[in-house]
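hiii, so i know i said id send this last week but things got crazy w the move. better late than never?? heres the sequnce for the chain we talked about at the cafe, plus the structure i predicted for it. fair warning i was half asleep when i ran it
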Amino acid sequence: MRFIPHTEEERQEMLRVIGVERIEDLFADVPEAYRFPPLNLPPPLTELEARWELEALAEANTHAGQYACFLGAGAYRHFIPAVVDELLRRGEFYTAYTPYQPEVSQGTLQAMFEFQSMICALTGMEVANASHYDGSSALAEAVLMALRLTRGERPRVLLFPTIHPEYRAVVRTYVQHLDVRLEGDEGWTREQLREPLAVLEALEARLDGETAALVIPYPDFLGRVLPPARLRETADRVHRAGGLLIAVINPIALALFEPPGSWGADIVVGEGQPLGIPLSFGGPYLGLMATRMAFVRQLPGRLVGETVDLEGRRGYVLTLSTREQHIRREKATSNITTNVGLMALAATIYLSALGRHGLRQVAALCYHKAHYLAGRIAALPGYEVWTEQPFFHEFVVRTPRPVEEINRILYEDYQIIGGYDLGRAYPELEGHMLLCATEMNTREELDALVTALGEIGGVESRGGSG
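okay and structure toks below
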C-alpha cells in the first residue's frame, strides 16, 4: 500500500496555485503518444522467485574471489578485515549526510578528522582533505589547484606519460574549456617509455615560466618507482622554475617507500581503493588529496578541524570553508560537494585496524610476491620482463603471443584472470602485459600462472581455445 501524505484538498490547492486543473496537465508538453507507453514487463514474481532470478544474474559474473587474479592497472584486490564492513554498516554511518551542523555530526566529523590525519602521516604532507570521488578526479582538482596557486599566469601543465591513462583523460575533460595546455604525456616511443629517468629529464628540460606544475606518478602505471633522491632533484628544479610538483601515489606503496612529502612534493593525490575498499566492478572508490599548509586555502573539498567548545570540550567542525563553498559555484574553489564519505570511513577503519606495521606487512608481501613472479616469468622462453627500474607490485612483460589471446586462454583453460593489455592504452606497447600480485595471491597461484604462461607461450595454436 502506498502512503501519500497529502490530502485531496491539499493537492487541489497546490494545482490551483500553479495554475492547472489536473495533475495530467503538468505533462502537456510531452507528446501524447509518449505519455503512457506500453511497458514490456515480465509477469510478477514472488519474493522467493525474485531472489532466485537475482542470484542467477549474480552468478553470471566471475569475480576476483573465484579465479586467481593478476589484474591490477589501478584497481587492486587486497585483504579487507571483517571489522571494516562490520563498522561501516552501522546505521549511523549509512545515513550520515554532509556534516554542516557539527552539534549533530560529531561522529562523522571525528572519523573524517582521523582519516585526514592518517593520510597526512602516510604521504608526509601537512594537511589532507576528506575527500574526492576517485583518484582521477583528485588529480584533476590538483591541476586546477596548481593553476590557482600560480594565479592563472602559467597556462601549461606537464604530465608524465605513465600516469594512469584514465587519470590523464579526466584531467583533459576538466580543463578542456580553459586556457590550459597539457603537455608531455604523448608522443613517446616504446624505448623511451622503458627509460622513465630519461623521460623525467626530458620533462625537466621543458620547465619554464609558463609551467604551473609537473605531475609525476609514484609508482607509475607500469608499476615502477622512481628513486626518491632523484625526485628530490626534480622538486628543486620545479620550484626554481616557479612551478609546483604534483605526485600521484598508490597508498599501499607508501608503507615501503619514502613518502612524497619528504622529497618535495607540493600536492599529493591518489586512489584510496586499496585501503579497505573492494573492487566492486569499478566503484565507488576514494580520491586522496594532501598538500602543504601554505596552500590550504586553495584546497578543494571538505576540511575537518579540531577545536574546543565554550566548556573546553574537544570537538570537530568543517573549517576554512562555508556552506557557500558547496552551493555557490562562482564563489567555490571547487564544485565538489557530497562525496564518497563512506569510502573515506572504510579507509579510516582499514588503516586503524592494520596500523603502521600491518600496512607495511601488506606492502612487503605485495612487493616480494610480485618480484618472485617476475623472476620466474623472466626465465620462461619467449617472455621478457622489464626489470631495469625498481617496481612495487606490478611489472611489464613482453609476451610471445597477443595479450588478448593469452588472457582468453588463461581464463577459459586455467581459471586465471590475466594481466592488463597495455596496447589498449599505449599502442606502442602492443604485445606487452601488465601483471599485478598482491598479498591475496598464494604461492600456488603464482606458480600456476607461471606454468600456464609457459604452456601457452610454447604452443603455436590451441585448437578451439586459442
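btw Confidence is low (pLDDT under 50) at residues 460-466. thought thatd interest u
miss u guys!!
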